[in-house]
Each structure stands twice: as C-alpha cells, then as structure tokens.
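Title: Request for sanity check on Amino acid/amide ABC transporter ATP-binding protein 1, HAAT family prediction

Description:
We are preparing a figure and want to confirm that the structure record we downloaded matches what your pipeline produces today. Could someone re-run it with the sequence below and paste the raw structure tokens into this thread? We only need the token string, no images.
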Amino acid sequence: MGILEVKNVNKRFGGLQALGDVNLSVAENTCHAIIGPNGAGKSTLLNCLVGKLIPDTGSVMFDGQSVLGRSPHEINQMGISRVFQTPEIFGELSVMENMMIPCFARRDGAFRMHAYKDAGAERDIIDRAESVLEDLNMIDKREMTASSMSRGDKRRLEIAMCLAQEPRLLLLDEPTAGMARADTNNTIDLLKRIKAERDITIAIIEHDMHVVFSLADRITVLAQGTPLVEDTPDKIKGHPKVREAYLGE
Ligand code: ADP
Ligand code: MG
C-alpha cells in the first residue's frame, strides 16, 4: 500500500476526457516521476491530488485517508505540499516574508504577515523558515525582494516554501521548466539531497529526461489521460510503447 493511492480516477472537461481510469500508487519515501507528452493530463492529475480539481469518479487516498471532498487547504494540512507549474511566489515580498506564508498557512490556516514583524511570538516558525533557507544555501538572500531573483532562485524559493511546511508528500510540476542547464543541475542536486536526508515522498512531473532519470525510483508514463506503463527508469528507457508514444518513434 503506497502513501498515495489513486484508483480509477476520471476527469472530463466538457467533451474532453482529460483523465481516463488513472491508477497510481506511490510508495513512501520514494521519488515517483510522471511523464508524458503535452496535454497528457499530468497537471490535471496533480490538481486532483491537491483539491484544485475534483475527479468525476475514482478515489485518491493519502496515508489511508481520502483527500476527495477536502479543500486544498485541508489537503495541505494533511501533509501534501505542491510546487506549481508557473511560479507562485509574492514578487513584492522578501524571501523571508514569502517563507512565512506557507508556515502560517500550515499551522493555522491564516495569512498573518504582521506576525513576522512581531518576531518574539513566532520564533518557532521563523526558526524553521531560517533553517530551511540555510539548508538550501539561501539564507544570505533572506531580505532580497523575491521578484529580483533569478528564475532558478525563484524555483528554489518555491521548493523552500514547501519544505518549510515539513510535508510528507512533495508534488512538483515541471520544477526545471525554462531553467538554464546549471540551474537544472542545481535543482537535481537539491532534490536528491532532500530525498536522502528527509522523511519525504516526492512525485514529480517533468519533461527533462535527465532530471527524471537522475531522481526517479519509478516512472509512470501518461498518454492521453491514461497510464501507459509504470516501471523502473531502466525498464522505461527501453520500453517500445514509451518510445512510440513519448518519443514519437
Ligand atoms: P499536461 O499537464 O500533461 O500537459 P493538462 O493536464 O494540463 O496536461 O491537460 C490535459 C488536457 O486537459 C489538455 O487537453 C488540456 O487542454 C485540458 N485541460 C486542462 N485543464 C482544463 C480546463 N480547466 N478546462 C478545459 N480543459 C482543460
Ligand atoms: Mg502540465
């Protein structure tokens, strides 16, 4: 039994079957990659896991509890954090202020920026945010305005914001999209380290096969809303169905 169990999930948008009978089991403390061509339904699937979309049918269980019918916030409090396909940071705010938002959201579900100024009362949360920034080599950027950072650093900040919530399941939607090679390699190293050092399960949607093969323990290939094959990276590499559907051969 995986920490995440998706069973027979279907999702339609009008006449379009975005997900058709999706089954997915993600084992605890592994990294599971979901790959597939554009429009395959990868982001839709992720949205169904975090309560942003509700499947038409099927079940989604996290650690033995159903996530369906819960709000994104409640699902977040269950221990699932997510990095979106397009960065969702507050450009006007500093790195540290950005870090505060998910910390407070996880703890008491409220946006309480003023608490950052009133440091004494919230020392535990500030300590946690600072320790994640230190861990990710970003502590020297704590007062930087988020919008002035490089694309790679913005992505790193988003990952830091998720980690500050101490999630059990981290969901990443194309975390290296649009990144320069050096930033991509830094992100691979960072995720490898997170995986090795933390008690965390990672599900990652990723186009860059170098990233996928560097990180994944298992890979699910999604095509036209349906899992085509699920296997280890080595098996996936040589799979004829994958080459046909994904590499266009
Ligand atoms: P992927 O992330 O694999 O590229 P998506 O999950 O974003 O694919 O999209 C799967 C399909 O569903 C696509 O054909 C997309 O156009 C469609 N789709 C996604 N979201 C919506 C929506 N909110 N309304 C209508 N169609 C959508
Ligand atoms: Mg997508």
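Thanks, this matches our download. The chain has a mean pLDDT of 90.
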